[in-house]
């Protein structure tokens, strides 16, 4: 209210000071020029005052466009007033369009109005308010007929069937915190967010119970768009049950993971001296639910004697299978307990590790499918502990999904070097 009152007072004052001895046209031009001057200086408050004064003198299209431009600058400068100022800008551009003569070129104003509508639509989409977002996307589409905007409208309408839980403000913040942690790229932040006890409680109490030990929860647009899917799977062990929490955040299409995304997992283990948390992260792209392209996988241990142990694996996947060179860097501890760094690599063709040579030992000859620290090895990426027999394809399928009625429900596969005789497996 204070800012509105100040604008009113200043507008009246300016009108009073400039009215004496000047024609209406001169008065308007003076205020309009002042508005443009302040706009160039990014003094949006003064610009709004000057353009408002010009409108009071002569409410023509140029003055409304000028004030609309000032409101846009104000919206970008003050996030707290983003919506209000963009709404004001849109209203001014709409008024300006109504004042133009039919033969005049209005393309510049139409583009300004389109950008204002889209700014508001995208804002509401980020706030996960699809209803309001749809209003402004439809306004932009009606204004321009832009098919790209029309496609976005169809996406939002598809997601009207999206499964959504009734969350409190505090519960919503838990999921937003997880998304922010994933966006940050920090393993520590992601580990803290995914292991949050409240996240576990929400998924189990408000998610979809696939079985007595498996719960799933969708947040955002997991049909088509960008969304988060969280899975809690209770695993039985010698020390009782431990929660294995998995989350994917990224792009979706037709209910499947499709596009760029991040998959993280956290296994919480009680009464384990080696480690209390096993955190894993895979970053890359998917196509119709299968890993496709370059990927990086990281495994980190927290707590216990293996605190800080990190394994990083990089490689390329085609239709979910490793293809080309895959490299693993282990940064942890040797058998003697001392710090150790080892680098192991293998070559894959459509998911099958290629033989790189033979290793002669006193016990016999063994095929080598990897190179470890520069030497042929039967340990590590792509290696097998038995013979050079026919092997399963070693899949790097990270994520495949199936959905019914928009409800949460998907199958996590593995970023793995996994076959019948495989010596290693990750995220299995």
Provide a descriptive summary of the structure in words.
With 428 residues, the protein is an alpha+beta fold. The chain has helices spanning 2-19, 24-40, 44-57, 61-77, 82-99, 107-126, 130-144, 147-158, 169-184, 187-194, 197-206, and strands at residues 208-211, 214-220, 225-237, 240-253, 256-268, 277-287, 290-291, 293-302, 310-318, 321-322, 324-333, 339-349, 352-353, 357-361, 364-368, 370-372, 375-377, 399-401, 410-412. It has a 15-stranded antiparallel sheet that branches. A two-stranded antiparallel ribbon has the order 14-15. Helix 2 runs antiparallel to helix 3 (44-57), helix 3 packs antiparallel against helix 4 (61-77) and helix 5 runs antiparallel to helix 6 (107-126). The longest helix is centred in the N-terminal third of the chain and has 20 residues, at 107-126. It is elongated and about 105 Å long. It starts with a helix and ends in a 16-residue tail after the last strand.
Uncertain stretches of 5 or more adjacent residues: 1-5, 384-428
Specify the number of helices.
11
Distance between the termini: 59 Å
What does the overall shape look like? elongated
Report the major sheet. 15 strands, antiparallel
User: What is the rounded Rg?
Assistant: 30 Å
Structural class, by secondary structure, is alpha+beta
Question: How much of the sequence is in beta strands?
Answer: 25-35%
